[in-house]
Amino acid sequence: MAVNKTFETAKDALAGVLHDGMTIMSGGFGLCGIPSILIEAVRESGVKDLTVISNNAGVDDAGLGLLLVTRQIRKMISSYVGENATFARQYLAGELEIEFNPQGTLAERIRAGGAGIPAFYTATGAGTDIAKGKDVRRFNDRDYIMETGLVADLALVHAWKADPEGNLVYRMTARNFNPIMATAAKLTIAQVEEMVGPGALDPDHIITPGIFVQRMIAVPGVEKRIEQRTTRKRAA
């Protein structure tokens, strides 16, 4: 039987899903590969007290920064947040809770959650403030700290191509956090630049199998912001 997981709008895709106090994973790196249209729909819903798991918090006027401006986020579990002045102000004022992670540790916590691994040991952060309050064990004459896997209520991801069954293909930098987040949530919603027909994707190119994706929206021509634009004159 044919399966079609596509919804007309982001609002439709999020209907019946959002609730106050939930945990959301949001893919992307900087402003690259972020589920921008889905984030805007979360903002418009007014849902609040969110815990958001994301490598970064966007910028003040784009990405997750939009949810910080409206104070819908209570806690961030992140690695890098240096591009967002709103984030800094709220954190320093004690209005926003933050759980910082080394970037590789954050990625592995998400991957572990998606793989059903409740915890793992890593040498990263051993002997530093990151290790405070965590289980420390010694393996092969080196200290390791225990980190727990992460699982969210909802994952919002951005993909390049998809078929109606939800098989996803990513492009370049968008492939970093999106695929692991797609596996580590109770429900995954993808925004997709190009929808293709059944069987149109090369199986060897599929990165996220459709079994992990419950809902999708098409976003052809979606705006792709550049976080820090750096240019130089062309050679003569």
Name its key features:
236 residues, alpha/beta, Glutaconate Coenzyme A-transferase, three-stranded antiparallel β-sheet, 6 helices, 12 strands
Molecular structure report:
The protein is α/β, with parallel strands linked by helices and 236 residues long. The chain has a single domain, classed as Glutaconate Coenzyme A-transferase, CATH 3.40.1080. Helix content is 19%, strand content 27%.
The percentage of residues in β strands lies in 25-35%
User: Segments where pLDDT lies below 50 for 5+ residues?
Assistant: none
Helix and strand string, N-terminal first? EHEHEHEHEHEEEEEHEE
Largest sheet: 9 strands, mixed
CA-CA gap between termini: 59 Å
Kindly report the name of the CATH homologous superfamily: Glutaconate Coenzyme A-transferase
